[in-house]
Amino acid sequence: GVIGSAGWGPGDPGGERVMSDRALTIGRLARRADVNVETIRYYQRRGLVSEPPRPAYGYRYYPFETVNRVRFIKRAQRLGFTLREIGELLKLSDGHCADVHSLAENKCRRIRAQLRELEALHESLQRLGRCCGDAHDAPTTRCPIIDALMAPGEVAAPHATK
Hints:
Residues 101-128 form a coiled coil. The chain is mainly alpha-helical and 162 residues long.
């Protein structure tokens, strides 16, 4: 598929493969995918990238298609998908587009909710900032922002004294 193979094909007798332009060490895989080696190992622990068998001569070789899989994971992360959600996307790669669309729509709804929460936080911080008025040189013992953060309960900006 487009995302890249997670395993070895039947053309790999005994799981051993010689180095070629289609097989990469973990270091080369990381460089090609523009991540570090620890990222690849982390994805393996999370089940997003398969770990190839270690042949008798010691080096594991990843199918070249794994580069696309790692790039897919990174791009999905930049779009805000969690690794759990990315795992779901990878499982859906052989399914129907409607399933992927549904997952993306759910993510969009969660992002919109987060944006509303961030906007509310932004407004609260702006109100707190306005409470300072001209008191920028006042000691912190008389700072309205500190007072609001120290008060029990929800942070509610006191009325500006300006």
